[in-house]
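Researcher: Re-running this chain for the archive, since the previous output was lost when a drive failed. Same request as before.
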Amino acid sequence: MDDFKPTAVPSQHQKLGEVHRVCPTHGAYVAGVYRWGEMSCKSCHEAALKAAERAEQQARHVLHMSQRSRHARNAAHIPERFADRLLSNYIPVCPAAQYALEVAERFVSEFGTVQTQGRSLIFCGHVGNGKTHLAIGIAHELIKKMRYPLFMSVLNAVRHVKETWRKDSVRSESQAIRDFIEPDLLILDEVGVQFGSDTEKLILFEIINGRYNRKKSTLLLSNLMVQELSSYLGEPVIDRLREGGGIAVPFTWASYRA
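Model: Regenerated structure tokens:
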């Protein structure tokens, strides 16, 4: 009996032949034919791979920036209640409020010059009319610019420094004060909410003066009017904050919360 030699079945990857095709994008090409079908345009395939790689890189970049932004917001101590306060969703209810918004926007857009000059700002006046909203909005914009803002109430700032007075503290008072001097912008909230002791005022002066000497910008938020704020902080502090083009913006319109 003759030896039986079965015909080998082509594998899935064995080329059976070639055909000529025309890609609407890349023109004529030769496509390999296999049991499962034929190859598509090689140039289209390579373009699709590159597009997928770019999309993956973009997705990683978006995730990285989102994580960085969240970390920066946490590092800036932006309160959860005010996390959504942006310059873009601040609604000015009168010409004075529009002016305050324009000051905030200009502060952000000119921040390179602001840093060079050590220019500061004071938002002062009535309760509930958007001082914190604009300040947080500025912080958000600076985070986008890869700057480091820090938001802190005066009470918490003083408490942070006083914690170093404990016998078991591993940090010095000067180190604690340095925490408030290093940020690109320090936003001090509730300035003068209660008339503090001379010690508390001295701590506040050390922080503001330290930033002044380093040409670091400071934004004060207060429900006091300028004259009252000057009495609380002292005229030398107000003069330092106004140097380099710093201004006090009065918030005198009715409360948004009313």
